Amino acid sequence: MSSKIKVDILIINASELLTCNTINKKPKTGKELSNLGIIKNGAIAIKDGKIVFIGKTSDVRKKIISAKQTIDAKNKVVMPGFVDCHTHAIFAGSRENEFLKKLQGVSYLNILKAGGGILSTVQKTRKASKEELFQAGKERLLKMLEYGTTTIEIKSGYGLTFKDEKKILEIASMLEKNTPLDIIKTYLGAHTVPKNTSKEKYIKEILSSLEKIKSHAEFCDVFCEKEIFSIEETKKILTYAKQLGFKLKLHSEQCTTLHSAELAGSLKAISADHLEHVSPSGIQALKKNNVIGVLLPGVSFYLMGDKYAPARELINKGVAIAIASDFNPGSCPSYNMQLMISLACLKMKLTPSEAINAATINAAFAIDRAHEVGSLEIGKKADVIILEIDNHNKLPYFFGINLVETVVKNGKIII
Ligand code: NIG
Ligand code: FE
C-alpha cells in the first residue's frame, strides 16, 4: 500500500509518455532499441527535482494529495530531455568562410591541412577572454535548452596548450553553475597538433598535462584520424589517461578506416564516436567490449558526405548506439537534437523509436549518466519535455522545426 503525497509538479494527460526506461540498467540494443516504454494517457509527478510517480494519469492522480503546479499536457508527447553526448560547445568565432570553400568542393581534412578548420577556431579561442567565451557558451547552451537538450557533454580542444585547454574546461564548469543544464566535461587536447610545434613535442606536452587536467575533466578523447593522431599515438595518450582514472572516448573512423574502433574496444572506452568508416572487425570489437557507438548524422549531412555511419549494421550486430549533435563551428553548427533524430531516420534508416532512445537513454549511457538522466523513471532527475505533437512518429517527421513547448530541468520549469 503506497501512501499519498504532496508533489511540486504534476504533468497529466500525455497522449504518449515516452519513458525510454531501461531493462537491466543496460544500454538498449537490438530489438530493445525500438521499445520506448510508452504509457498512453500518461502522467508524471515531480518532487524536490526528482521523479516520484509515473504511470497512467488516473493512477498517478490517486497517489497525489496535492501538487503545487499541475500541467495539462493536452494529449501531447511527454518525454525525457535530450542528452547531447558529444559537443564542442566552447569556442570563439564562426567559420562561414569555410562553408563557402566546402561548397566549392574542398574537403574537411584539406581545409584543416591548409591551417583552417580546427586551427582557425583555436586561434580565435586563444585570443578570447574567459568572459567572452563564457557568454558565447551560455547563449549556445540556453538555445539548446529551448530545443529540449537538458544534459550536454562538452569537449575542450580549441586551446591546444595546457593553459588554454584548462581555460575551456573551467568555462564548462562556470556554465554548469550558471545554466540549468548538466554538463559533462571531456579533455580533447589531442584534437589536432597546434601550429609551430612538432607532433612529437605536442604529444609529450599532452602526456605531461594529463595529471594536472584530471580534476577538470571526467573523460579523455582523441581525434584518431589519418594525418591527425595515429592508432599508436592515440593508444599512448588514452592508455595513460586511463591509468590516471579518466573515462575514455574516441573520435573514431570519421574520414578513414584506421581500426580505431578495435582500439576503443581493447581500451574499454565508454564510447567510440563518428564511425562513418568503421570496419566489420571494428563493429565486432565494439560489441564484444560494450563500447557505445555515438553516431553524428548532422556531421555527414553538413560536410556533404555520402557516408553515414552504418547504423543498421551496428544495431543488427548488437552494438548499443547513441545519437548526438557534435555541435561545433566546423562540421555541425546546430543546436537541434530533434533535427539529428530526423537525420538519423532519413539518412541512417533508424526508426523514430530507435532514434529517440539513442538520443536519450543510450546517450546518457555514453556519458555514464544513465543512473540520473535519459529516461523517465522514479528516482531520476526530473528532466522532462513536452512536445507539440500527439505521437512520437511526428518527432522526426517534422524537419528542422522546434517542437518543444515545455522544458522541465531538475524539477524546475525553465520554458
Ligand atoms: O567532431 N572531427 C574532429 N572534430 C570535430 C570538428 C571540430 C571542428 O571542425 O572544429 C568533429 O567533427
Ligand atoms: Fe566531435
Fold topology:
Blueprint: E1 5-18, E2 38-47, E3 50-56, H1 57-62, E4 64-80, E5 82-84, H2 96-103, H3 108-113, H4 118-127, H5 130-146, E6 149-155, H6 162-178, E7 182-190, H7 199-213, E8 219-223, H8 231-243, E9 247-252, H9 260-266, E10 271-274, H10 280-288, E11 292-295, H11 297-302, H12 311-316, E12 321-323, H13 337-348, H14 352-358, H15 361-366, E13 384-387, H16 394-397, E14 404-409, E15 412-413
Parallel strand pairs: 1-4, 5-6, 6-7, 7-8, 8-9, 9-10, 10-11, 11-12
Antiparallel strand pairs: 1-2, 2-3, 4-13, 13-14, 14-15
Helix pairs in contact: 5-6, 7-8, 9-10
Bound molecules: N-(iminomethyl)-L-glutamic acid and fe (iii) ion (FE).
How many helices?
16
CA-CA gap between termini? 36 Å
Poorly predicted spans: none
Report the count of strand segments. Answer: 15
* Helix-residue proportion: 25-40%
Strand-pairing-aware structural class: alpha/beta
Q: Classify the beta-strand content into a percent band.
A: 15-25%
- Small molecules bound in the structure, each named once: N-(iminomethyl)-L-glutamic acid, fe (iii) ion
**Whole-number average pLDDT?**
97
Q: Care to describe what's here?
A:
- With 415 residues, the chain is of the alpha/beta class.
- It is 36% helix and 24% strand.
- The protein has 16 helices and 15 strands.
- Strands 5-6-7-8-9-10-11-12 form an eight-stranded parallel sheet. A seven-stranded mixed sheet has the order 3-2-1-4-13-14-15.
- It is globular and about 65 Å long.
- The two termini are 36 Å apart.
- The mean pLDDT is 97.
- Bound molecules: N-(iminomethyl)-L-glutamic acid and fe (iii) ion.
